[in-house]
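User: tokens in, sequence out, please.
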């Protein structure tokens, strides 16, 4: 058979006389047998049940009308009430004054096979059979003729074809539709003027009631022509999403509604574009703001020597490495950086990663696997949590810094190949320290591996900025993670451990193996910053002095604040209050972010100040004053 003529293939399935499903296509003759078979398969697999009767009708069609698809847009509705209100206002926009009565008619209708045909002004029903309604049939998406029908109903793709045909019918001014599928809550209002407007929630999930109303004008005395067009004129809709394509209708709604929920709860976040060098002052939309939230604790990202080293490295080694570390991506500076890190932190060996996040995910997921147990502090950073999840090991979460709880869990954890105790060194949202000596002692007692993430401790904690071990004057953990991205002012993460563990990571850590090697600029900047930290340990002392000055300034204004690091949390509780306080501080040109769920638990939202050695005392004093004012005004 040739491509012409086209055939209409219709399937209708029922059980005990009750309708189960129906579908139709318009296809080339040679595609008709396959299409018929596919529609039968679809009917037999219908979630509503197996039909006892399937009728198929294959009819040659001629005089096919080609019409354009209505333009599609989506209205997000959070609740059915919302959705019905949106539908009403869209109908009004389409010129229908009695919109609310029409919505009420639809909600009150009994189940029908077809649609009501209702006069827009008198609300009189014009279809001859009120039980059945008018059925729009003989239509398909143009361009779908060569393709098999999908195995399941694609609500959107079928509805846009139907609505486009209906909108083209003589006398039709609008349509409203709610699906009768219990789990399909998206409906629409359509009209030639406003297009196809999807409404993401028209009913509660599980509700099996739906319906359609075709709204018309000027055909009360002779609706036959319109009904004939709807039921009999073959139409191909141009530019509709192909029936076999999933389109984005399956997932766009769920994304929209999640975003809306986040907005409603005060959890919406977006990026902010800052001008100037990283540091204590940034330009934001044309004004200068004081930055009290940077991780650049020592002001090295903006240090001219560090920047120069990065620039020189780009000229000497290239902008990127164009290879993974195990292939072509290891340059002399990678080896140099790792030697220097090991030396500075007093470890046998070190391995660098492109980010601190990757260092945690890459080390934890390599060290622990199925058959192992990870014991993890409840306030550990997201990168640790993600590493634990990715590892496939059993995970047991112990109470924050509670060594009694950790001991209890270790003592009950027999039968594992490896046991790994993981903790932030400095807790990133609270600024407190893990009790490293006790943690290491417990690990030794129970034969567990100790693992500390010193990301916020490097350059901050310990006399020379060497982290928790230096601070406590104790051994370092078996595995210590650090970052190049915070006080060292560059970018990247690293692991310090024994040679054996580092060799293991090189062979086992997938983020290490399958990532491009860190760029020469980042590596060279880190080396230069490490040199500065070694040569100028007074920077760490200056940072400590600034932190003490700032917390004392707050205390003088009646705000208790303490920290063991450079992170000063001001816990406010409610997410919206924290967001509001942050916004008011921004109005006064202080950038202090509100930290909210999921970064911290729900109800523990806070302002998080990060102090830097680069801050001037006057700026810190002014910030303390602004914080006190804002909090007092909001109380
Ligand atoms: N002609 C007229 N009315 C019909 C037809 C038809 N061919 N098919 C169904 N109806 C009526 C009938 O009363 C149904 O109860 C009601 O419409 C709903 O039909 O963009 O799935 O097939 O994601 O359940 C909208 C897609 C999906 C929204 C609508 O309708 C989107 C849907 P259903
Ligand atoms: Mg349905």
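Assistant: Sequence out:
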């Amino acid at each position: 058979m040739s491509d012409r003529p086209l055939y209409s293939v219709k399937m209708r399935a029922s059980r005990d006389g009750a309708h189960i499903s129906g579908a139709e296509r318009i296809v080339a003759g040679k595609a008709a047998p396959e299409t018929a078979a596919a529609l039968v398969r679809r009917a037999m697999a219908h979630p509503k049940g197996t039909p006892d009767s399937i009728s198929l009708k294959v009819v040659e069609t001629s005089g096919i009308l080609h019409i354009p698809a209505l333009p599609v847009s989506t209205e997000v509705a959070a609740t059915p009430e919302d959705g019905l209100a949106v539908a009403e206002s869209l109908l009004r926009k389409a010129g229908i004054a009695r919109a609310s009565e029409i919505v009420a008619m639809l909600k009150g209708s009994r189940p029908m096979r077809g649609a009501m045909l209702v006069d827009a002004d008198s609300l009189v029903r014009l279809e001859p059979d009120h039980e059945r309604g008018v059925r729009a049939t003989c239509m398909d998406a143009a361009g779908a003729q060569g393709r098999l029908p999908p195995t399941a109903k694609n609500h959107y793709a079928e509805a846009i074809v139907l609505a486009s045909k209906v909108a083209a019918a003589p006398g039709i001014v609008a349509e409203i539709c709610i699906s009768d599928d219990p789990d399909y809550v998206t409906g629409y209002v359509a009209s030639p003027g406003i297009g196809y407007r999807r409404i993401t929630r028209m009913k509660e999930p599980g509700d099996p009631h739906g319906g359609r109303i075709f709204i018309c004008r000027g055909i009360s005395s002779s609706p036959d022509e319109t009904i004939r067009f709807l039921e009999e004129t073959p139409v191909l809709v141009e530019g509709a999403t192909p029936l076999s394509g999933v389109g984005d209708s399956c997932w766009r709604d769920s994304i929209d509604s999640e975003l809306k929920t986040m907005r409603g709860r005060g959890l919406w976040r977006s990026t902010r574009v800052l001008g100037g060098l990283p540091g204590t002052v940034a330009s934001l939309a044309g004004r200068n703001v004081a930055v009290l939230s940077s991780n650049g604790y020592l002001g090295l990202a903006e240090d001219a020597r560090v920047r120069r080293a990065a620039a020189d490295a780009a000229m000497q080694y290239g902008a990127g490495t164009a290879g993974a570390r195990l292939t072509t991506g290891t340059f002399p500076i990678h080896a140099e950086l790792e030697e220097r890190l090991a030396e500075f932190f007093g470890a046998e060996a070190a391995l660098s990663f492109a980010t601190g996040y990757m260092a945690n995910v890459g080390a934890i997921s390599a060290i622990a696997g199925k058959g192992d147990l990870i014991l993890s502090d409840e306030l550990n950073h997201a990168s640790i949590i993600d590493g634990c999840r990715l590892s496939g090991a059993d995970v047991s979460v112990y109470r924050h810094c509670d060594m009694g709880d950790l001991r209890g869990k270790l003592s009950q954890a027999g039968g594992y190949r490896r046991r790994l105790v993981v903790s932030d060194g400095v807790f990133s949202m609270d600024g407190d320290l893990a009790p490293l000596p006790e943690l290491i002692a417990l690990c030794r007692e129970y034969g567990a591996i100790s693992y500390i993430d010193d990301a916020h401790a490097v350059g901050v904690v310990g006399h020379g900025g060497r982290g928790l071990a230096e601070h406590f004057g104790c051994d370092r953990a078996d595995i210590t993670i650090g970052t190049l991205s915070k006080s060292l002012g560059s970018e990247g993460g690293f692991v310090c451990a024994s040679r054996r563990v580092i060799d293991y990571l090189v062979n086992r850590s997938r983020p290490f193996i399958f990532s491009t090697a860190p760029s020469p600029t980042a590596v060279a900047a880190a080396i230069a910053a490490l040199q500065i930290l070694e040569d100028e340990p007074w920077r760490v002392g200056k940072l400590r002095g600034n932190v003490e000055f700032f917390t004392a300034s707050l205390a003088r204004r009646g705000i208790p604040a303490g920290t063991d690091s450079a992170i000063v949390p001001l816990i406010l509780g409610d997410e919206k209050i924290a967001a509001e306080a942050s916004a008011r501080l921004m109005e006064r040109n202080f950038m202090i972010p509100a930290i909210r769920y999921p970064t911290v638990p729900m109800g523990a939202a806070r302002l998080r100040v990060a102090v830097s050695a680069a801050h001037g005392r006057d700026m810190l004093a002014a910030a303390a004053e602004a914080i006190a004012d804002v909090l007092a005004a909001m109380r």
